[in-house]
Amino acid sequence: MEKHKAGFVNIIGNPNVGKSTLMNALVGEKLSIITSKAQTTRHRIFGIVNGDDFQVILSDTPGIIKPAYELQKSMMDFVKSAFEDADVLVYMVEIGEKALKDEDFFKKITGTKVPVLLLLNKIDTSDQEMLESQVDYWKELVPNAEIYPISALENFNVDVVFNRILELLPESEPFYPKDQLTDKPERFFVNETIREKILFNYKKEIPYAVEVETEEFVESDNIIRIRSVIMVERDTQKGIIIGHKGNALKRVGIQSREDLEKFFGKQVHLELYVKVNKNWRSNEKQLKRFGYNQK
């Protein structure tokens, strides 16, 4: 009888390299929100993949940046924690990328004792010659890593990476119940779904000035009733979120409800409100309230 394997597989990289797409492909569920904008992922999100003799706990972290305000500092704390408990470290880059935006993080990758899988993503946008030169480049830069060319979006080579992860996992009992998909509560996914629609529908600073808080989540046999508040930093942003005659907010609500009904597998009634919460991104107390400040 084979022994049970379990461990933490932590995914890190610059913004927009496709970490969330990979996470969702490996888990088989949409747990991390995906948009073309940078800094989409703000938290560290666990996705749990269970088999008869294994449990893989995948961790998607925010893209590595130089923090400019308190929220971004908290986001980088989530990345630091990913180094501390990794059994396997997945360093994700894309074709043409040169290095991490933070040299200290890069030194941690090249100096770590845990196995490193360097995934060269978006190879569907490249040709063979460029791919070969990129593999050579990264071999020299991160000699301790195993390199795998992939396309997370097209699901190319993702199964190969997953099988290698299983080989590298230590023997261990499961850390979570075998029917658990993630460590996050249902309200978290409501908030993230609404935030994703805001990222899609608004431009410039608006999506980054927004936080979502679900105040009510009541589930019965055939319907879930949800009331969520969209927090912004200024009155002018509140007006933009609501839009002319409330049309912009209505669009976000419809799109969010459609996605949430797919996610939860039942009818959803969603109410959205907009409130001003001045400078919440630089307020440690507010950040703690929204689950960012780990200290």
In terms of topology, how is this protein built?
Elements: E1 5-13, H1 19-27, E2 45-51, E3 54-60, H2 70-84, E4 88-94, H3 103-111, E5 116-121, H4 128-141, E6 145-149, H5 158-168, H6 186-201, E7 211-219, E8 223-232, H7 235-242, H8 247-264, E9 267-276, H9 284-289
Parallel strand pairs: 1-3, 1-4, 4-5, 5-6, 8-9
Antiparallel strand pairs: 2-3, 7-8
Helix pairs in contact: 6-8
Q: DSSP strand (E) fraction?
A: 15-25%
* Biggest pleated-sheet summary: 6 strands, mixed
Assigned CATH superfamily of the largest domain: P-loop containing nucleotide triphosphate hydrolases
Which structural class fits the helix and strand makeup?
Answer: alpha/beta
**What is the string of SSEs from the N terminus onward?**
EHEEHEHEHEHHEEHHEH
CATH class of the largest domain: Alpha Beta
Describe this structure in words.
- This protein is α/β, with parallel strands linked by helices and 295 residues long.
- It folds into two domains: 5-168, Rossmann fold, CATH 3.40.50; 186-289, K homology (KH) domain (GMP Synthetase, Chain A, domain 3).
- Helices cover 36% and strands 24% of the residues.
- It has nine helices and nine strands.
- The protein has helices at residues 19-27, 70-84, 103-111, 128-141, 158-168, 186-201, 235-242, 247-264, 284-289, and strands spanning 5-13, 45-51, 54-60, 88-94, 116-121, 145-149, 211-219, 223-232, 267-276.
- The strands form two sheets. The protein has a six-stranded mixed sheet with strand order 2-3-1-4-5-6, sandwiched between helices.
- Strand 4 (88-94), helix 3 and strand 5 (116-121) form a beta-alpha-beta unit.
- The longest helix is centred in the last third of the chain and has 18 residues, at 247-264.
- The protein is globular and about 55 Å long.
- Residues 33-40 have low confidence and may be disordered.
